[in-house]
Backbone:
C-alpha cells in the first residue's frame, strides 16, 4: 500500500546453513503478492535452487557468499536465468565479508563487482555490515564509490535510518544507485515508507 517497488527477503538461516531453510515462507510471500517483484538472498548455492524460486514466482535471486568463492557460478547463472540474478556484496571497510558476515576476506568490493560487469547481473546489493541494523546512517560515500566504479546498478543497504539517509542517497543516485533497502527503519517507525517512496519518485 505504501508503494514499495520490491520486497527484499533474506533467508538468514539459509545463509548459515548453505541451503534454503525458509523456502516455504518465501514461496508463500511470492504467491501472496504477485504484483510486486520479490528478491531473495541467503543459502542460494546452486542452479536448482534458483530455478525453484523463479518457478514459485520470485523475480530475483541474490547470490552472496558463492559469488565471492566462485565468480564463474554467477556468470553461468546469468546465462541460464538472464535478468534474474543479483549479486549481494556485504563489506566492511570496503572489503568483502562472507558466510553470514562471519568472515571478512581480502577481496575488495569494487574488485569483486568488476568481475560481473560483462555477465549480465541485474544489480548489486551493497550492504555495509558495520552499519546494518545499527540505525547509524547509511554509508553514502562507500556506496557511491562502488556505484561510480562499475556499470551495474547498485542498491544501497545497511544503516538507512531516516529521511536524511534517503535524501543523501538521492543526491548521488546519478552515480549509479538504483534504490535502497529498508528494514529496521520501517519496523521501528523511523521512516515512513510511503513518504520515502514519494520523495524518491521525484528522481525516477
Residues:
Amino acid at each position: 500500500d505504501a508503494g514499495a517497488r520490491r520486497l527484499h527477503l533474506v533467508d538468514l538461516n539459509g545463509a548459515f546453513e548453505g541451503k534454503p531453510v525458509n523456502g516455504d515462507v518465501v514461496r508463500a510471500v511470492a504467491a501472496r503478492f504477485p504484483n510486486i517483484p520479490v528478491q531473495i538472498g541467503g543459502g542460494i548455492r546452486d542452479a536448482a535452487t534458483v530455478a525453484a524460486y523463479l518457478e514459485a514466482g520470485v523475480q530475483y535471486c541474490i547470490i552472496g557468499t558463492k559469488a565471492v568463492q566462485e565468480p564463474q557460478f554467477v556468470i553461468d547463472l546469468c546465462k541460464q536465468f538472464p535478468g534474474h540474478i543479483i549479486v549481494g556484496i556485504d563489506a566492511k571497510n570496503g572489503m568483502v565479508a562472507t558466510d553470514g558476515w562471519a568472515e571478512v576476506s581480502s577481496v575488495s568490493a569494487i574488485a569483486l563487482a568488476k568481475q560481473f560487469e560483462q555477465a549480465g547481473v541485474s544489480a548489486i546489493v551493497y550492504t555495509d555490515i558495520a552499519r546494518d541494523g545499527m540505525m547509524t546512517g547509511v554509508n553514502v560515500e562507500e556506496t557511491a564509490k562502488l556505484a561510480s566504479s562499475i556499470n551495474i546498478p547498485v542498491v544501497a543497504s545497511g544503516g538507512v535510518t531516516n529521511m536524511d539517509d534517503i535524501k543523501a542517497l538521492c543526491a548521488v543516485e546519478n552515480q549509479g544507485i538504483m534504490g535502497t533497502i529498508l528494514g529496521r527503519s520501517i519496523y521501528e517507525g523511523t521512516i515512513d515508507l510511503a513518504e520515502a517512496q514519494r520523495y524518491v519518485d521525484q528522481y525516477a
The first helix runs from residue 12 to 17. Strands lie at 7-10, 38-41, 60-63, 85-92, 95-98, 103-108, 123-128, 154-157, 177-180.
